[in-house]
Amino acid sequence: MKQLPSSNRLTQENGDIDFTRTLGILIDHKWVIISITSLFAIIGVIYALLATPIYQADALVQIEDDQQNVNPLNEVTSLLGKEPPSESEIEIIRSRMVLGRAVDILNLDLVVEPKQVPLVGGFLNRHGVERPTFVTDWNHAKVASLPVVSGMLDWLGVDTSEFSFDWGYIWAGETIDVKAMPVSDEYLDKAFTLQVLDSQRYRLIHDELPIGEGQVGVDEEFLNGNVGLTVAEINAPPGATFELMHLRRLRAINNLRESLVITERGQETGILSWMLTGADSEQAMTTLSTVADIYVAQNIQRQSEEARKSLDFLDSQVPAVHDELRAAEDKLNTYRTERDSVDLSMETSSILERMVNLESQLNELQFAEAEISRRFTPSHPTYAALLEKKSQLNKEKANLESKVNSLPQTQQEILRMQRDVEVNQEIYVALRNKVQEMQIAEASTVGNVRILDMAEVYPEPVAPGKKFIVLVATMLGGMVSVGGVLLHAAFNRGIETPDELEHLDMPVYATVPLSEDQQKLNRFIRRENGRNDTITAGLLAKRNPTDVSVEALRGLRTSLHFAMLDSADNRILVTGPSPGIGKSFVTVNLAAVCAQAGQRVLIIDGDMRKGHLHSVFGTRPDGGLSDILSDRQPVQDMIRTADGMDYLHYIARGAAPPNPAELLDTARFTELLEFVDQHYDLVIIDSPPILAVTDAAIIGKHVSTTLLVARFQLNSVKEIDLARRRLETAGVKVKGAILNAMERKAATAYGYGYYNYAYK
């Protein structure tokens, strides 16, 4: 047996992609592709119109360098490095310390959502569509005035006195003002429904159960005080409903953090760009302004606290330094009095000056160390650098001390005492000056943060991008449609060319084009199993003899004339692998063109289960083959003549028997065929599908010419081969095949195709 042709329609025999055929498939299914793409585009347009617009507010903030800080201790803390970089400031802004304060001020943990018309409610409200008049009229009218509706609602147990035809939906201009909703922990993140009763009263519902009513402007309590609610104003008609929820504070902070984006412009510029997105443009701008104000205020407070701490430290040092200065002066005066005012030499004075400078630097470093120790550990690089500088100064001090030790005793004592006095005096004066400067700094602290651009919101929404959504939806629709078409073509194993049948060593006697006129004649019937089937109704060869399908059957008639020259009888069996492939159409129209040529032709409907050959001639199936084989009716009485065609006769299927296969396998069927052989030039039998039942195999034993019908793009090569082998197993040789319902398509135009031409 020859190898069956490949079932993949998109590849050539060498395995390469057949681009010509692929293009043809897309052209054949262009309307499917256009329809699906258009559907996706329409969905994209609808989504773009109905999606909630997202607005963006932005602000610009500058973090100034620490050199602009007015804290006087910066002179002695220069080793501390710069202020925290922008990344640190960004994290401060996004912290709960800042955002949590904004949540508390603006009640962002309180969610009030109106119940809107599904899908389109937001669109209608955004475009200012107010409550329709007829809806308002229905709300104020009692349903009881309509007896039929009232009766139905009463039967369903609905209280018509409270029935509202708009189901509590909110329209444009309808709002409520909720000032506060304190709840206990167990009711956090729980949904409540507020239903408006009138302009001053409302009902609160939880878990679909009313939990109480409240008044506007009154601090109400529900559920034993676990839920509080203060409604300041109601601007909505009775029946309007709103969803309320008190979020956990941390959840509200995280929601705000997710919508806030902070980036630095450039590198180490200290200029931060703030962006906040939200569905409410006014709320987005207000929220961003509030966060900026809170951040600036905390920055000023932080700077002021730093100045306050430094001032406290200086205040604690001034008395001690003053006491040391007094003690040093007294000691020097006493010594001079005792030694009769000993003066210092020039060399000793120079040493004294150097020692005073060193002591001054060491004292400044000591102040700096006291400041830095509150922020860093000794292992920190900044702290380590300070300690290293302090060590170097101590070494220089030790060198000077060695020089002092080489001086005369009196000079040494005077030098040391004079040093103590001058050092303490310099330190004391410096501290007094710094105290005054720090007092000024504390009073005039402005922080190192400046708002360059106040928060403003873009007038147009930044999302969703309508053009982008429509473009993406259209592209997605195109890809889905093209992919679906190509995927279907890749797995479509239906026969498309006669070559595929000839690969099975099965001659193709005819390729019958799909007839548009016959499709108009066909009608649908509903089977007992609920399936809809298409049946042949009307004789195309009689109604339109010039149809291309009829011309193809005339060619089949000629081919059969020569093919049956050596046949033992004049019987033809028309069968196929599956139902719905057009066997009956081929049978009746082949018989018609043979009758039009002057032959006496008899058609036998061999499908006693679901045969509908009688529908072609507009009669009923009663009285036919099953009645003949059951010996209920004689053959002559069951043969009917087609209207307007004297040479064409037919036998309907008759009443559906319980055992059609057993009736066919009887001597009565053989006698029937022998009888009709004597009275007709050609007998054509339409049988059930061979892969469904065995009737065709039984009939084929009595017929010398068997034709197998395959439908274009429906029956696969494997189905045809299996049908032929099943017939051959039963001893029935298939004479040839008929490829039915051929369509002229771009995918097959370059191939074998079919050659039928209109000739008028």
From TrEMBL:
CDD domains: BY-kinase. It is found in: Cell inner membrane. It comes from the Bacteria. It is a multi-pass membrane protein. It holds the Pfam family WZC_N. Residues 409-488 form the Tyrosine-protein kinase G-rich domain. Residues 16-104 form the Polysaccharide chain length determinant N-terminal domain. Residues 355-403 form a coiled coil. The chain crosses the membrane at residues 31-50. InterPro entries: AAA_dom, Bact_polysacc_biosynth/exp, GNVR, LPS_length_determ_N, P-loop_NTPase, Wzc-like_C. GO terms for molecular function: ATP binding; identical protein binding; protein tyrosine kinase activity. Residues 580-695 form the AAA domain. It catalyses: L-tyrosyl-[protein] + ATP = O-phospho-L-tyrosyl-[protein] + ADP + H(+). GO terms for cellular component: plasma membrane. Keywords: ATP-binding, Cell inner membrane, Cell membrane, Coiled coil, Kinase, Membrane, Nucleotide-binding, Transferase, Transmembrane, Transmembrane helix, Tyrosine-protein kinase. PANTHER family: TYROSINE-PROTEIN KINASE, TYROSINE-PROTEIN KINASE ETK-RELATED. Belongs to the etk/wzc family. This is Tyrosine-protein kinase Etk/Wzc. It comes from Modicisalibacter xianhensis.
